[in-house]
Specification:
The complex is a heterodimer of chains A (about 240) and B (about 210). Chain A has about 240 residues and is α+β, with helices and mostly antiparallel strands. Chain A contains three helices and nine strands, in the order αββββββαβββα. Chain B has a domain of about 140 residues. Chain B is mainly alpha-helical and about 210 residues long. The chains are: A alpha+beta (about 240), B mainly alpha (about 210).
Chain lengths: ~240, ~210
């Protein structure tokens, strides 16, 4: 005896369209809804994170002013920073104490983005913080923790060249324990590529920024400190 | 012989031990090994995956009669990717630092075979309540497994637990434990323990059955 074949219910094109388009619309509404709800808080968190990173690398700065380089390479004050933010830092009296710049380049696994501070008084890089990295945990991320590497940024020489074309000495990373000059970065054994990348990032950025800062930053007026809140009449 | 009906509690509990996604089913290994280098990362990844498991299970179950079988994979992936995107935004809104620590692995929850597996094998055949309980149980089981691996790796690899130092200053940390290979070592250690315990359980059950007969 042979069994009658089981007739399978066929799916129509309409059912396919209905399911895929319907789920697509449901997903789109959900994503946009969550994005709209979280975007203000994400922006606040990002600004807070950047502000705390700036005060970490340039603790002397009480007030900051966002700046950028225009198409002609001139320093201009901007309302809001672009992808690679930069700031001028002022003390409580409105004296210019330094500048904080962001720069990035390829590390071992992906782009490494750092924030660093340049101080006018000693013409040196005096602070560095890694903002973004996907380097190997335990190896590449030593650039954020290794005390001897972080000690490079107590005063990493970044004097501008006499003709204002760049730095007097190129910032380079040398093998661990072989640092002899103040513009050299003492590298990390076990994080060679990442520590070399940090030196490269600082060099390419400082070569552009430092001469412009030395030439033009003092001409930019200090920002006004935020006015204290006035008591309301109801009180 | 009629099958014993499965209670809602069983749906939840099975993911914790009997069908644990990491130690028994060996699913979702990519995040389990990559993000378990610290206990806090493991906990955060586990929580994010649990959220996606529960929400994807609920959605797939609610839409199970609406999704034709020919379009089920594309539909499930679309639903899972949506909830992963939502969880990505939510983590960024909660903490930028945590988002930095988890890195690319939040986005990779989309391709965690555990979630697609539960959607296909369970949620598409069961009612929303059971699908959510199954997702919650699997998610909690996944979180515990990640946490166990994360604790071993953080304590040995960094000398800390949840960022708190566990050893005196002279302790030499085992750097290998925070590297991907350390994930395999910790995972192997836990699998050894889990399999030994399961074997003991099976032996006890067999002896009890023999005694009864």
């Amino acid at each position: 005896m042979t069994q009658a074949p089981v007739e399978q219910k066929k799916t129509t094109a309409w059912q396919m369209y209905r399911a895929i388009v319907g789920i697509g619309a449901f997903c789109a509404i959900l994503i946009v809804g969550v994005y709209m709800a979280t975007a203000p808080q994400i922006k606040i968190n990002q600004e807070r994170f950047l502000a705390s990173a700036v005060s970490e690398v340039l603790p002397a700065a009480v007030l900051t002013q966002a700046v950028a380089l225009d198409d002609d390479g001139q320093l201009v004050v901007v309302e809001e920073n672009a992808d690679l933010p930069a700031f001028l830092g002022y003390d409580a009296e409105g004296n210019l104490v330094g500048a904080v710049m962001t720069s990035e380049a390829m590390g071992y696994q992906d782009i490494v983005r750092v924030l660093y501070a340049y101080t006018f008084e000693n013409q040196a890089i005096t602070g560095m913080k890694v903002l973004e990295t996907k380097e190997t945990p335990g190896l590449g991320d030593k650039v954020e923790k290794e005390p001897h590497f972080l000690a490079n940024f107590e005063a990493l020489d970044a004097r501008p060249a006499a003709d204002g074309s760049g730095l007097a000495n190129e910032i380079v990373t040398v093998k661990q324990g072989e640092k002899t000059e103040p513009w050299q970065l003492d590298g990390i054994t076990g994080a060679t590529i990442t520590s070399v990348a940090i030196g490269h990032i600082l060099n390419i950025s400082a070569q552009v920024w430092v001469p412009v800062l030395e030439r033009e930053a003092r001409a930019i007026p200090a920002p006004q400190p935020p006015a204290p809140l006035e008591p309301t009449e109801e009180e | 012989m009629a099958l014993k009906p499965v209670s809602p509690t069983d749906e939840f509990v099975k993911g914790l031990w009997r069908d644990n996604p990491v130690f028994i089913q060996v699913l979702g290994m990519c995040p389990a090994l990559a993000v378990s280098n610290t206990a806090i990362n493991a906990l955060a990844m586990g929580a994010a995956t649990t959220f996606v498991l529960v929400m994807a299970g609920l959605s797939v179950s609610l839409l199970r009669k609406f999704i034709p079988k020919e379009a089920r994979i594309v539909s499930y992936i679309c639903i899972i990717a949506t909830f992963v995107t939502c969880v990505d935004y939510i983590i960024m809104a909660l903490s930028i630092e945590l988002h930095r620590a988890l890195g690319a692995f939040i986005a990779l929850i989309v391709v965690n075979c555990l979630i697609l597996g539960r959607s296909e094998a369970f949620a598409s055949k069961n009612k929303p309540g059971r699908a959510m309980l199954d997702g919650l149980g699997m998610g909690v089981g996944f979180t515990f497994a990640l946490l166990f691996i994360g604790i071993v790796r953080e304590v040995l690899g960094s000398g800390t637990l949840f960022g708190v130092s566990m050893f005196p200053d002279g302790f030499q940390t085992w750097t290998i434990m925070v590297l991907p290979s350390g994930g395999f070592l910790a995972m192997a250690g836990w699998l050894l323990i889990v399999n030994w315990l399961r074997q003991k359980e099976d032996d006890a059950a067999r002896r009890a059955a023999e005694a009864e007969s």
